[in-house]
């Protein structure tokens, strides 16, 4: 169930459907949500650097989620979203907040189950914030290549809204900053997202546009980026979000994922491709990616080439565990 202004919303009537509108289109025009989007857009993007002893944060990569306690963590967020979506679910009663970075519709239903269960109080009214997924559907890029007909963003945003609507919990939709609300044009006429990241201040519940500096995407950046791809080989993880953070103990646990040697062969092949062709082949939004996208992907490829056997990364099939130092940095536990 979705609430707006504390009132439940329902499916569109037959007249709306006949005019080609569905529930997502209607919500994008809702005055309360439009006002919230305009207010969000007016905020300056907050830059997050390393965690400190007095300002602990948790960063969520693509296809991960993390649930945090405000008594332990002050900021939780994600960025680097183009056609992906950052989803925040917060229990106002106790401040427990779950943040995910969803990339495809196939992870939405199970991902929502994981997030809601982690908050531990499904009877409460849960505040929801949705940011990301720019309007990529009607464009041609500057080289004249047609993008995927319906785009990647719309099906994902639509799936999230429909899934929230059908669930029994009460989700108070506070922000829907997606699609046309999160779209601008670059100097070449390509449509790109206005913001690709968000953070939530756990003490206040305030959501702001955000960008995380490289060292703030800790711990275990390369391995966690790698798992976005290779986790598809693991039937136990396929369709799920990666649950990587334990807020009770303030530790990251990167689950063991096994991958085949073919990944190193693929990495070697892609290493021979130019940056421009790499973007066109491996990005859902090649002209909207941040400047460091190709560099990050090449670092992941180099890691797989250097360490093709998963057992190097996960000796004995054990997870990689990281604990926070007193100064806010992370160290790997033996």
From TrEMBL:
<dbReference type="GO" id="GO:0005634">
    <property type="term" value="C:nucleus"/>
</dbReference>
<protein>
    <submittedName>
        <fullName>Protein N-terminal asparagine amidohydrolase</fullName>
    </submittedName>
</protein>
<dbReference type="GO" id="GO:0006511">
    <property type="term" value="P:ubiquitin-dependent protein catabolic process"/>
</dbReference>
<dbReference type="InterPro" id="IPR026750">
    <property type="entry name" value="NTAN1"/>
</dbReference>
<dbReference type="Pfam" id="PF14736">
    <property type="entry name" value="N_Asn_amidohyd"/>
</dbReference>
<dbReference type="GO" id="GO:0008418">
    <property type="term" value="F:protein-N-terminal asparagine amidohydrolase activity"/>
</dbReference>
């Amino acid at each position: 169930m979705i609430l707006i202004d504390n009132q439940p919303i329902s499916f569109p009537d037959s007249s709306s459907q006949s005019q080609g509108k569905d529930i997502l289109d209607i919500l994008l025009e809702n005055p309360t949500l439009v006002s919230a989007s305009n207010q969000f857009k007016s905020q300056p993007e907050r830059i997050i650097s390393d965690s400190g002893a007095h300002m602990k944060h948790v960063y969520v990569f693509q296809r991960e989620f993390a649930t945090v306690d405000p008594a332990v963590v002050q900021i939780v967020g994600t960025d680097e979203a183009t056609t992906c979506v950052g989803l925040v679910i917060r229990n106002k009663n106790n401040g427990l907040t779950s943040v995910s970075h969803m990339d495809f519709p196939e992870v939405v239903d199970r991902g929502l189950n994981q997030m809601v269960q982690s908050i531990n109080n499904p009877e409460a009214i849960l505040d929801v914030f949705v940011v990301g997924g720019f309007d990529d559907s009607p464009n041609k890029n500057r080289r004249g290549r047609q993008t995927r007909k319906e785009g990647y963003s719309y099906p994902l945003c639509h799936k999230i809204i429909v899934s929230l609507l059908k669930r029994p919990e009460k989700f108070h939709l506070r922000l829907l900053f997606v699609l046309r609300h999160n779209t601008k044009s670059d100097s070449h006429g390509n449509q790109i997202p206005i913001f690709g990241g968000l953070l939530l201040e756990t003490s206040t519940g305030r959501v702001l546009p955000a960008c995380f500096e490289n060292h703030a995407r800790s711990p275990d950046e390369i391995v966690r980026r790698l798992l976005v791809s290779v986790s598809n080989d693991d039937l136990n993880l396929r369709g799920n979000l990666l649950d990587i953070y334990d807020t009770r103990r303030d530790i990251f646990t990167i689950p063991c994922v096994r991958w085949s040697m073919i990944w190193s062969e693929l990495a070697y092949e892609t290493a021979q491709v130019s940056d421009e062709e790499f973007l066109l082949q491996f990005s859902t939004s090649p002209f909207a990616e941040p400047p460091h996208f190709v560099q990050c992907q090449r670092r992941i490829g180099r890691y797989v080439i250097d360490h093709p056997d998963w057992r190097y990364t996960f000796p004995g099939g054990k997870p990689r565990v990281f604990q926070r130092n007193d100064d806010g940095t992370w160290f790997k536990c033996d």
